[in-house]
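Table S5 (text form). Sequence records supplied for joint modeling of the two-component complex.
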Amino acid sequence: MFNSCIFVKYIKNEAYKILIIMSSKSKIRMSIGWIYPIGIFTSYIFLLLEFQLRRMLIQNGIEVRGVPYLTIILVALMFIILGILQWFRYRNRIYPVLGFLMGITTAQASFVFPHYNNPGLFGLTYFICFILIILFILINWNSLYSHERFEINSRRLFRLASERIIKADNGYTERPFSGGKTECTRDELLGFVRFLHGNYIIKPFYYENYVCLSFSMNTSLMVIYEGNEVSHVMIGYDGSVTVKLSDKDYKDYLEKLSFDQLCASFADIFIRFFDYYKKGYESRIMIELKSVK
Amino acid sequence: MDFKEAAKLGSCLSKDYAEDLFRLLVTYESISSSEAASRLNIHIKTVQDLMEDLFSLQILEREEVYEGKRPYFRYHLKVNKITMEIELKSFSGKEKNKDTRLQLKIRERKNAGVRFTTSRSSDYISNVVIWTGEGRNRSERKINLSMPQGRFLFHLPFPTAEFGTVKDIMKKARIDETNMPEIIDIVDVMIEFGAIETL
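The corresponding structure-token record, covering 492 residues in total, follows.
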């Protein structure tokens, strides 16, 4: 009992350290996706505690089942709530459905524990739900995978843009920022856009006079129909660069950054990436993105 | 002739009975309001008001006459021709202030409560929606912008950016100097509504 208490304390301290490191190093609010591993990891601690508690109660002659119902219900609720939260954040219906399926399946997990002698119908529904989850993930794999890649790279872009930017009062404006011009031909631009899209850095939308390169830390790029629904950089076929950041994305910064400098930084990044592409140094784009802390 | 006088004259000439009254004034050496009213078969006050307006515009002259108990005015034409000339350039006004306005340092005001709508081509602002008042008195005012005005507001410095002079912003937005009056006009409107702040 004493050993398990020490172990729990140790785990708690380590988890706290990880959270501190994550929040202090990043300028951007944590992604919801991070809550899943943290939640699941924490649930194991709860599971151990509940097992221990139930064992003690059984040893003391109190009749309780050996199944950790409380932890199972908590984890099930976590999946459902996180699914709903992700729906609100990403506007993608896949997440609440998946969250609900996972929640329901987890809730039924108690019936298939070895301590449970007769799972009956719940045992069957548990496996049906489990198969449904697998099928659902397989069918929506493209959307789930693409969203994750887009979000990761968008976060990298936002981190990269915020480097060396001074803190300032909230200067957000809905107006687009004119980020200057770059030398380009139509073919070069289209090639560059295809490269960025192929690496899940942006989602492009093609218009008559320009290409809109959309990226977002919030609304999923898999559910938008127009580039201007999220943060975007527009590059005209004449080389003009315009930046527009969404209010939601700007609010994800933990500290208020000078908005004009942030927009200028985005314009610089895309102009620099375009230069890399024109000179044949495409690999530098990914290296630069991945190197950002 | 200034605009107010021109408007007054326009109003006088637009009356249904104005032509008949001028015909009488040309025909008679002088005529009183009551004589003209009886001749045109309209109320004396209506004619008197019009004649007084024409007198104030120095188209008619009047003479006070004493016949019987009460004095009255007799009117006759002072001019044989009416010309209306308005200098439209004068409306742009502030000619002497233009240089000062061009040097004005401006930027967008923080949390101004203004919505900017970008054009489809995304290189200029097509309209600005400004909300004024509070609660039930809150009203929305939409200003559709001309292309040069839209381009100007597109390049307006952000709320946290350095202030920029009107002239510099015009240069950045590649706006011709001939569009200067309309740019100064929109700047004045935006300052009035608190959407732009000055240094």
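Note: Chain B has a mean pLDDT of 88.
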